[in-house]
Amino acid sequence: MVIIWLLGFGYWLFTMKILSIDTSTDYLSVAVMDGAKVLASYHRPSHRNHSRLLVPVISNLVKRCRLKLKDIGGLCVSIGPGSFTGLRIGVVTVKGLAYALNKPVVTVPTLDVIAHRAGSFKGLVVPVLDAKKNKVYACLYRSDGVKFKRISKYLLVPVESLLKMTAKYDKVLFLGDGVKLTGSEEKIKKWHPRADATAALALEGFRKKRFVSPEKLEPMYIYSRECDITGK
Fold it and tell me: 41: which strand partners?
C-alpha cells in the first residue's frame, strides 16, 4: 500500500498544474506548468506595473491552457530579495489564491532562480542585485555547468565586501542589475528570474511537501546592521 501511495504521489507531482509567479524585479514573470512542462508563460518588463498587470496575466494564462483556477494543484512564488514593492505584490497575490483555492504553496529564493540563468558556466556564479547605498543583495554558488551548489548565505553587503569574498576565485560570473557596481563586464543580459525556472526549483519542495502556510507567507527581506531599513 505504501509503495502504491508513493507511486501515486509521484504521478500526481509529475502531472500537477503549478502556477508560478515572480515579481521581484522590473520584469513580471508568470507561468502555468504541468509538472516540469511549460503550458503557458509571460515574461516581460512591466515598468513596475505589477499590481495592475499580475491578476489579468494570471487569468489570461490559465484560460489559454483551457483550465480554471480550481484546476491549479499548487502555487509557487519567488520571495526575494528584490524590489520590496514587487515582492509584496507577488506574495499577497499568492497568499490570496492559496486561501481561496486551498492549495499548497512553495517558496523559492530569487537569487537561486537568477543563478540558474548562468547556463553552462563553470565556476563561481554570483547573482547581485542593487540594494542602493552601494550595497548589494548577493549569494555565491559553485557551478560545474550543470548543477549549482549554494556556498554562502543570502547576503546584504557593501560592494567592496563582496569583491573581497570573490577575489580568491579564478572564474567568477556576476549577473543581475548590480553587476555595474562590481566593475565587471555584464556577460549575461537576460538574467531576470523566470517563473518557469522558479517552478522547476519548487518541484523538490512539492515532492517533499515543504509547504508554507498562507498566514506565514512573507517576502525574504535581508537586513544588515549598516542598513537603516527596518521591518521584519
Answer: 31
Nearest Cα residue to 23 out of 74, 80, 72: 80
- CA-closest candidate to residue 195, choices 25, 49, 14, 64: 25
Burial of 158 (0-12, 13-18, 19+ CB in 10 A): middle
- 547556463: which residue's cell? 119
pTM value is 0.88
pLDDT tens-place string over residues 27-79: 999 999 998 899 999 999 998 899 999 999 999 999 999 999 999 999 999 99
Which amino acid is located at 26 in the chain? D
For residue 56, cis peptide bond before it (omega within 30 degrees of 0): no
The predicted-structure confidence for 117-164, as pLDDT tens digits, reads as follows 999 999 999 999 999 999 999 999 999 999 999 999 999 999 999 999
CA–CA dist 35, 217 (Å, integer): 23
SS (H, E, C) 203-221: HHHHHCCCCCCHHHCCCCC
